[in-house]
Amino acid sequence: MTIHVSPEACPALVLNADFRPLSYYPLSLWSWQDAIKAVCLDRVNIVSNYDTVIHSPSFDMQLPSVVSLKDYVKPALHPAFTRFNVFLRDRFQCQYCGSKDDLTFDHVIPRSKGGRTTWENIVAACAPCNLRKANRVPWDIKMFPKQAPYHPTVHDLHNNGRAFPPNHLHQSWLDYLYWDIELVE
């Protein structure tokens, strides 16, 4: 899975006051309009600019490519239990067969058998595996998740998010991101 970012849209990478991205997945990006508004409201510092300049009747300004918040935003300690975060924890692949297509989620212990909708009982599953497993328990059908479901930390999700970089990384962002990509001079 790739996050699509158009370089022509000139998005600004948003860093916390400690110069770390607010999030890695989705990557913390603002539209150029939101970045300019935050600059005008004195909420951010401009760290780096694009070559693109905007013009108004009263001033010209280069579009910011990287901004940092003036006030530190404390990151959440516990991620929200959402479908997206379950998929991110499971790296957007079926925990039964490894497919990345037609993902849904599965109760490892079905609700009909007392299973609950919790981090520890939900896994990403492709529709065919979910249909095959139906409302049976893993040991009855010999379908066990490749990774046992667990309650991830925000750090776990950020680490997994780094494996799915956007299709466009502006050169000015690279000093603030920790992607596993080769940096070319």
Automatic annotation (TrEMBL):
Keywords: Endonuclease, Hydrolase, Nuclease. Pfam families: HNH. InterPro entries: HNH (IPR002711), HNH_nuc (IPR003615), NA-targeting_endonuclease (IPR052892). GO terms for molecular function: endonuclease activity; nucleic acid binding; zinc ion binding. Residues 81-131 form the HNH nuclease domain. PANTHER family: OS07G0170200 PROTEIN, SLL1193 PROTEIN. This is 5-methylcytosine-specific restriction endonuclease McrA.
